Amino acid sequence: MGYSTTFTIDHDRFRKLSDKEKVQLVDELYSAVMRSGNCEIVSPWDIKVQKSRDADDTTIYLHQGNTLHEMNPHSNITQRLFQDHPELAKEYIDVMESEVGELRRRLNEMASGKE
Fold first, then answer.
1. What confidence tens digit (pLDDT) does each residue in 74-99 have?
2. Contact, 57 vs 3, CB < 8 A?
3. Is residue 6 located within the same domain as residue 48?
4. 50 and 71 fall within a common domain
């Protein structure tokens, strides 16, 4: 298996793209992937490119508000979050646990026919 790169795109500005900007955007996305991600494209589009990862690497991304948080126990980014902002990291983990709990509840409801 190959590598995957995750993009986070602020939709607000996309409605106003000219044809020239659309071509430029595709060129910038391509360049970001070829650089293996882990950068921000500085452009009118507010695109954040997450680090490219081997297809066997599992990473959870928590989207919250207009932010994206990488959560991977083996990631330097996550380790820095733990070291620099432990309370915030705990908050993110609590949010993820809450979401997983709700997903389990809904799955169990569907499996038992209570949908």
1. 989 899 999 999 999 999 999 999 99
2. no
3. yes
4. no
Tokens 């026919």, located at residue:
113
Which of 33, 54, 75 represents a domain boundary (last residue)?
Answer: 54
Same domain? 22 vs 63: no
| Total length of the chain | 115
| 47 & 70 share domain | no
Question: Domain range holding 101?
Answer: 58-115
Strands, E assignment, the chain? 3-4, 7-9, 39-41, 47-49, 53-54, 60-64, 67-71
> Structure pTM?
0.69
18-65 pLDDT, tens digit per residue, is 899 889 888 888 887 777 655 555 566 667 777 777 878 888 999 887
Check whether residue 68 and residue 97 sit in a common domain: yes
**Is the separation of the CB atoms in 46 and 28 below 8 Å?**
no
Q: Which residues lie below 8 Å from residue 52, measured CB to CB, with a gap of 6+?
A: 3, 4, 5, 33, 36, 37, 38
